[in-house]
From TrEMBL:
InterPro entries named among the record's database cross-references: DUF3567
Organism: Curvibacter cyanobacteriorum
Pfam family, one: DUF3567
Name assigned to this protein: DUF3567 domain-containing protein
Source superkingdom: Bacteria
Amino acid sequence: MQMLYDSDAFVVVHMLADAVPPTDGSSEPGPQLRRHGFEIVDKRSGKEVYLDGSWAEMFQQIVLRWQLNAPTEEEVEDTLERYAGLAQNPVLVH
């Protein structure tokens, strides 16, 4: 898991597809994500959306362009605002 962006309005986390070390002392690997994805949290609404599959691939292209072009915070927030419209799941703190 890698945090990519954190502002007053949004958090973006890249969930990587790799094995999780066992936590119970056994030699068996823990749960594994089959493919990578991105979690976008809209702090204002308290909801999140998880992008995987083709959605994650499209968002990955956006992230790569951001790394090359260094967009303004406003440009990043405008893009995340569009994805926030997909957010349906309430964020729960455990």
